[in-house]
């Protein structure tokens, strides 16, 4: 997956080519290992922290929270734990959205320019001006944005957005990596063979991945329970026993949300 992402992914290949020199591209790729590794470590730590906080009171099992998917745990954790610090919840949510939008914008531009340079420009054989090609690229970027919005609405029906993203990524990256390796290791493959292999690879990968998503298959999660959750029926008793300076039962329950250890 890493090789397909950084080795043959159109988003990153365009960035490599924009550097002008091979050494600059190699240097940028090597330096990117540090922030990428840090990001993966922090993501793993977030998962560990969430499990440590919620393992006795899973918000999904606790019907009082209204959560239905584990994808909602991070926003729920941010809101329930950081609501007392003004502006922090908004800053965290804005960071999540900005990271997602920056990735989507790069992907839109990469797809649009790939379509223009690899399909539209060769097909018209230089009949289109640079201004016209740029306009077509911008139009395609808007079209891809609309497609992304539609896909996001469709993917909201699945249980895990992470699994959906992984399947969507593997849908094309796997066959593209295979084609790249064929080009490196062999010179006997023809255009028709490559295109046919790409189509077959996408079909098989898509059938396998999306069948797993919509078949109802669930991997076994770590042990979770709801025995440590606060009981709304006993809110008066809980509020009177909590060692806080709350002035209302509702605010006590919010400020002391899910503290099974105390």
Write the layout of secondary structure elements.
Layout: H1 2-8, H2 10-18, H3 22-31, H4 33-54, H5 73-82, H6 88-124, H7 130-155, H8 161-185, H9 191-214, H10 235-241, H11 249-255
Helix pairs in contact: 1-8, 5-6, 6-7, 8-9, 10-11
GO molecular function: symporter activity
Family: Belongs to the sodium:solute symporter (SSF) (TC 2.A.21) family.
Protein name: Sodium-coupled monocarboxylate transporter 1
Question: Could you characterize the architecture of this molecule?
Answer:
The chain is mainly α and 262 residues long. Among the domains are: 85-157; 160-217. Helix content is 70%, strand content 0%. It is built from 11 helices and no strands. It has helices at residues 2-8, 10-18, 22-31, 33-54, 73-82, 88-124, 130-155, 161-185, 191-214, 235-241, 249-255. Helix 5 (73-82) runs antiparallel to helix 6, helix 8 (161-185) runs antiparallel to helix 9 and helix 10 packs across helix 11. The protein is globular, with a radius of gyration of 24 Å. It is found in: Cell membrane. This is Sodium-coupled monocarboxylate transporter 1. One of its GO terms (biological process) is sodium ion transport. It is a multi-pass membrane protein.
């Amino acid at each position: 997956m890493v090789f397909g992402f950084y080795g043959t992914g159109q988003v990153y290949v365009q960035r490599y080519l924009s550097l002008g020199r091979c050494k600059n591209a190699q240097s940028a790729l090597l330096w990117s290992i540090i922030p990428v590794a840090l990001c993966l470590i922090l993501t793993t730590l977030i998962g560990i922290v969430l499990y440590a906080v919620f393992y006795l009171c899973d918000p999904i099992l606790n019907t009082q929270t209204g959560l239905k998917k584990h994808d909602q745990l991070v926003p729920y954790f941010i809101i329930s734990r950081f609501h007392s610090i003004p502006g922090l919840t908004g800053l965290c949510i804005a960071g999540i959205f900005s990271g997602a939008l920056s990735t989507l914008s790069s992907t839109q531009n990469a797809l649009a320019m790939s379509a223009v340079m690899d399909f539209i420009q060769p097909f018209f054989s230089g009949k289109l001006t640079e201004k016209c090609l740029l306009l077509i690229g911008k139009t395609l970027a808007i079209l891809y944005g609309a497609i992304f919005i539609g896909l996001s609405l469709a993917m909201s029906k699945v249980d895990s957005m992470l699994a959906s993203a992984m399947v969507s990524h593997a849908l094309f990256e796997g066959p593209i990596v295979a084609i790249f390796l064929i080009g490196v290791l062999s010179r006997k493959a023809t255009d028709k063979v490559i295109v046919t292999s790409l189509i077959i690879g996408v079909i098989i990968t898509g059938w396998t991945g999306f069948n797993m998503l919509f078949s109802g298959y669930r991997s076994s999660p770590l042990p979770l329970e709801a025995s440590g959750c606060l009981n709304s029926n006993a809110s008066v008793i809980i509020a009177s026993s909590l060692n806080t300076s709350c002035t209302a039962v509702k605010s006590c329950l919010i400020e002391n949300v899910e503290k099974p250890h105390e």
